[in-house]
TrEMBL record:
It comes from the Bacteria. Residues 19-33 have a biased composition (Polar residues). This is DUF397 domain-containing protein. Residues 1-38 are annotated as: Disordered. It comes from Streptomyces koelreuteriae.
Length: 53
């Protein structure tokens, strides 16, 4: 095995690295006003190329 390849056992964390989280960050949400929701819907239509035809 080449010298640059670690012989550390697979599945074991390296002591120099912090422990990794097993889950992602908590999700957040906000309530949109009717006007904001309509504006977002229009933006999505524009970006998707849907002209409402």
């Amino acid at each position: 095995m080449p010298e640059h390849v670690s012989g550390w056992p697979e599945g074991h964390s390296l002591p120099a690295l912090p422990q990794q989280r097993q889950t992602g960050p908590r999700s957040e949400s906000v309530e949109l006003t009717t006007q904001e929701r309509d504006a977002f819907t229009e933006l999505v239509r524009q970006l998707s190329g849907d002209r409402g035809v």
